[in-house]
Backbone:
């Protein structure tokens, strides 16, 4: 039988009203833990569910899934476990997704506890969508976004949804500009083709990256010119270094 101390620390149902609300998406609500400000709690919006722990109006096939509304938690945890086998943090730094820390019962249902991605003020970091909408996107953001997708492609990270609101931008997490994905992590398809194929997954990630970049450039053509010039300068530098390196 679990000890009272264990129950108090890990098994006690947390009152969601004690948590600070941070943000909400189409399905989940995000709160900061009252005793651990460096983690967030992700719960499925109770307004989207009914008493059996299933989403309202979901299909017959999805209703047969025994995990119900928590199947997204499993996808995220599974993807992190797979990535942990491939990712060497001593070499690569922090992984490109918010690190899951466990599960916490709450008065609003089970919560997935994950690393809180913060800005320099210690608040929840801004999304790429917010940077885009406020005209705050700069070259450093594009470079960080490109590094993010390169890492995901190289490490075969499967993302089921890729929208601007799912990427948080931080310069304090690793000491450099970076984007971290916080939702839509893992394989959604019944036949996990992208989990099985590095090539298919790479093509999907590359397509999503190109679509996001194009949406940014359509709204900010001056930024596109800066980006094109920066890449051209980088290419010329590579050409200059190439012959000199061979001659040494």
Residues:
């Amino acid at each position: 039988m679990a000890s009272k101390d264990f129950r108090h620390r890990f098994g006690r149902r947390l009152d969601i009203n004690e948590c600070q609300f941070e943000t909400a998406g189409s399905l989940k609500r995000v709160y900061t833990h009252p005793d651990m400000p460096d983690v967030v709690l992700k719960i499925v919006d109770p307004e989207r569910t009914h008493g059996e722990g299933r989403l309202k109006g979901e299909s017959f096939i999805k209703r047969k899934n025994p995990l119900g509304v928590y199947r997204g938690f499993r996808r995220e945890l599974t993807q992190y476990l797979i990535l942990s086998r491939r990712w060497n943090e001593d070499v690569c730094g922090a992984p490109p997704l918010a690190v899951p820390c466990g599960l916490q019962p709450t008065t609003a249902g089970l919560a997935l506890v994950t690393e809180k991605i913060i800005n320099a003020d210690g608040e929840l970091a801004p999304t790429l969508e917010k940077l885009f909408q406020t005209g705050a996107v700069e070259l450093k953001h594009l470079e960080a976004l490109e590094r993010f997708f390169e890492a995901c492609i190289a490490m075969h990270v499967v993302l089921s949804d890729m929208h601007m609101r799912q990427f948080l931008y931080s310069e304090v997490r690793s000491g450099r500009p970076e984007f971290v994905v916080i939702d839509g992590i893992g394989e959604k398809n019944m036949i996990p083709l992208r989990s099985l194929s590095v090539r298919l997954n790479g093509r999907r990630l590359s397509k999503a990256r190109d679509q996001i970049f194009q949406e940014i450039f359509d709204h900010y053509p001056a930024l596109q010119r800066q980006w094109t010039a920066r890449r051209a300068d980088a290419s010329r530098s590579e050409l200059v270094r190439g012959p000199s390196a061979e001659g040494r």
